[in-house]
């Protein structure tokens, strides 16, 4: 990384919550040890979020890395714990199951500091498959729909915390994450930044890899969590019955759009069967979300 003579690059704190994931955390931390950003200008703050005995994380024997503990369950509570002690002018976020590219920190800092200076940026999240390409219906869903970071920033004013950066001054202005949320706290935080007139930017060259969810169970577990997070955020914001009815109806617009698209490559029965399995799972997911939003509408 090149900087102007006599000007030090901003000090960066990389924040990583972890729960029962020591193996993938180790890979993530190894990637952070070989960043192109000047090694004396960043630290890594790992927060153990009450992991099980035998699944406790450890960090490298490196003065840049520290391990904190947050007994209150929830990744946003863990991130807030890191914010209490992090020294960075810039705060960078990822997850224990992510694998940052070697220039990841450098690219996020460049995205934040480019004129006009941004208040919050999100990088690209590339979904990785165990076999190298999507095979299961769940993996096809992940391939087609997971982590549309640019879309989130453009239309919903947030970036997922798997690949996000902001200024400490921005956190001081809008407040930390909502520790009471189990999901979608990144959306709630980003929307507070935007509501104060903050500039949000997509940085496609700041890349982390994320393993695809390979099974129906994994995918539906995440869906129930994120749908409940959307519901809770919107209820807290005062959304009315019409809003939730509209969200429910949108699920079937999305499904119809997928039915009308040729989504799975391949000719003949193999391609048709893969498409049918994908659409079956997609329909189940839309039904689950419809139920969440209609029950919320009934409460208004």
TrEMBL record:
Annotated Glycosyltransferase 2-like domain residues: 13-165
Keyword entries, A-Z: Transferase
Cell inner membrane in keyword set: no
GO molecular function, one term: transferase activity
Gene3D superfamilies tied to this protein: Spore Coat Polysaccharide Biosynthesis Protein SpsA, Chain A
Top-level taxonomic group: Bacteria
InterPro entries membership: Glyco_trans_2-like, Glycosyltransf_2, Nucleotide-diphossugar_trans
Protein name: Glycosyl transferase family 2
Native source organism of the sequence: Kineococcus radiotolerans (strain ATCC BAA-149 / DSM 14245 / SRS30216)
